[in-house]
Design a protein that fits this description.
By secondary structure, this protein is an alpha+beta fold. Helices cover 30% and strands 15% of the residues.
Length: 142
């Protein structure tokens, strides 16, 4: 289980990670990582978007997207559970305050735990490599 303070719940946080973060695609999944993790746009001061987080930089937070194209509900839930477990063990490698969204592709429904692990690790290695200065975010110029 992923601790509450490490979960992405709000649509705005998912959108920030996907639109402003870097992307690494693999055959089974696509991983979006936003290192700054600060939401864009107005913030509602009355609603606490990150419960259980102390002042300062929040810990890394993760969200998952597993569409119906992956398979029936039983398969989608299995893929989500596997991905949550894999990401939970890797959150400590991510910079504080970062947002990560893992989107499962249709072949993930037939993949083994080990195959998901290998694709996730390869995507994270690519995303966590140091960026050259002045590089444009993924999706720029489209």
């Amino acid at each position: 289980m992923l601790p509450s303070e490490n979960r992405l719940r709000r649509r705005q946080d998912f959108a920030t990670a996907v639109k402003r973060g870097r992307r690494a695609g693999r055959p089974l999944l696509v991983v979006h990582l936003n290192r700054d993790g600060q939401p864009q746009g107005p913030v509602d001061r009355n609603s606490d978007s990150r419960p259980h987080v102390a002042e300062g930089l929040p810990s890394a937070r993760a969200g998952f997207v597993v569409s119906k194209a992956v398979g029936p509900a039983v398969v989608r839930n299995l893929v989500k559970r596997r991905l949550r477990h894999l990401v939970r063990d890797r959150l400590s490698r991510l910079p504080e305050g970062s947002l990560i969204v893992v989107r499962a592709l249709p072949p993930a429904g037939a993949a083994t735990y080990l195959e998901l692990e290998q694709d996730l690790d390869a995507a994270l290695r690519r995303l966590l490599r140091s960026e050259p200065t002045g590089s444009a975010p993924t999706g720029a110029g489209r």
